[in-house]
Design goal:
Blueprint: E1 7-8, E2 11-12, H1 17-24, H2 28-35, H3 43-56, E3 73-79, H4 85-100, E4 103-109, H5 118-127, E5 130-133, H6 139-146, E6 151-154, H7 158-163, E7 171-176, H8 177-190, E8 196-202, H9 209-220, E9 226-231, H10 236-248, E10 256-258, H11 262-274, E11 284-289, E12 302-305, H12 308-323, E13 335-339, E14 341-343
Parallel strand pairs: 3-4, 3-5, 5-6, 6-7, 7-13, 8-9, 8-10, 10-11, 11-12
Antiparallel strand pairs: 1-2, 12-14
Helix pairs in contact: 1-2, 1-3, 2-3, 4-12, 8-9, 10-11
């Protein structure tokens, strides 16, 4: 660890411009010039400064972070859609954890798509000390956008994690779907259901993991899987309504539907009511997420609940471990997992 770094309130003091100048053997003014691509220094000196900044994980801020207390740290949170209650509930819990640990929080909304928001993400990475992100980017783009920033990726595909450059270790927090989906299927079977369909959303990057997990779980129980695949839409409620239209055209409609998420489950409930299908008597409905609003729909939604508070704490714990790592060693690459819990309500 750099000799001038100290620990305070469980957080290592981050290296500043003075430490970079000392390591590079230059003045503070030279560091400023190098980091801001200003004239007046040689290419060799600039290279030495940038290498020292990389080694110390120094991240300058155009907002003058050098003027604030060194114990204050900033965390970036990247989500897909703050209008979606899933992301707003998660952001709320991350904010609570950050405030309790005296970190400031910057929230950015990145719309789905591997080409969207790259420049905005780079700007965010320049302003924060670490980030927690839903980032549907290819592995090379993750490395080019976030650089050496300590980064915790949320619910990212294993193949993407495996393809990340070892030069910049990343941490990841994933959701293990198997325990929760297994609970849901067993609950439905115990209630006499046998024609259990899953609603899946087809994204450009491919099929969701839940489809393969669901199919395996169904076959393990001697049941025939049936996946209703809907093309990606901006409106998850519409996904649910489209799924019902497809399900009811089948020769033998399902007697239970596991939705892609809670929002699509709300659309399913609405469309089943429009078609005069009784829930849960004729068709049971299960959501995934455990949104608070699930108790305010009719009937109240049975769901696979994610503990947002625990999920946020797990992600923040990864951030702390990464930012406290000695600069003389690579960032730790942490892998943690969360799982859903079945919450039974009126829709089953």
């Amino acid at each position: 660890m750099y000799p001038d770094r100290v620990e305070k309130r469980g957080v290592a003091k981050r290296a500043g411009i003075i430490e970079v100048a000392e390591l590079a053997g230059v003045s503070r003014q030279t560091v400023t010039r190098a980091m801001n691509d200003m004239p007046g220094i040689s290419a060799e000196t600039k290279k030495r400064v940038l290498e020292a900044a990389e080694q110390l994980r120094y991240r300058p801020s155009r907002f003058g972070r050098e003027l604030v207390q060194q114990s204050t740290r900033s965390l970036g949170l990247v989500v897909s859609d703050l209008a979606n209650p899933y992301f707003s509930e998660l952001a709320s819990e991350v904010a609570k954890v950050a405030i309790a640990n005296e970190w400031s929080l910057v929230v950015m909304e990145k719309h789905p798509g591997p080409e969207s928001g790259k420049e905005e993400l780079r700007a965010l990475a320049d302003q924060v000390d670490a980030a927690i992100a839903y980032a549907d980017l290819a592995a090379p783009d993750i490395d080019s956008v976030f650089g050496s920033l300590p980064l915790v990726l949320l619910d990212t595909a294993e193949q993407t994690l495996d393809a990340l450059s070892p030069a910049h270790p990343r941490s990841a927090l994933t959701i293990d779907l198997k325990p929760g989906l297994g609970q849901a299927i067993d609950h439905l079977v115990a209630g006499g259901r046998s024609r259990i369909s899953l609603v899946d959303i087809h994204y450009p990057k491919g099929e969701s993991v839940r489809s393969s997990v669901y199919t395996r779980l169904m076959r393990e129980r001697g049941l025939e899987p049936h996946v209703i695949t809907i093309e990606s839409k901006d409106d998850d409620l519409a996904v649910g309504r489209c799924a019902v239209e497809i399900a009811l055209r089948a020769p033998t409609p399902p007697d239970a539907i596991i939705a892609f998420n809670d929002l699509s489950a709300f659309g399913i409930l609405k469309e089943l009511k429009v078609h005069g299908v009784s829930v849960p008597d004729t068709c049971a409905v299960v959501g995934i997420d455990g949104l608070r609003i699930g108790v305010y729909v009719e009937p109240e939604l049975t769901t696979l609940r994610l503990d947002f508070a625990a999920f946020a704490q797990l992600a923040f714990d990864c951030v702390v471990q990464m930012t406290n790592a000695p600069v003389s060693k690579p960032l730790p690459q942490i892998r943690k997992h969360a799982a859903h819990q079945l919450v039974v309500r009126q829709s089953t």
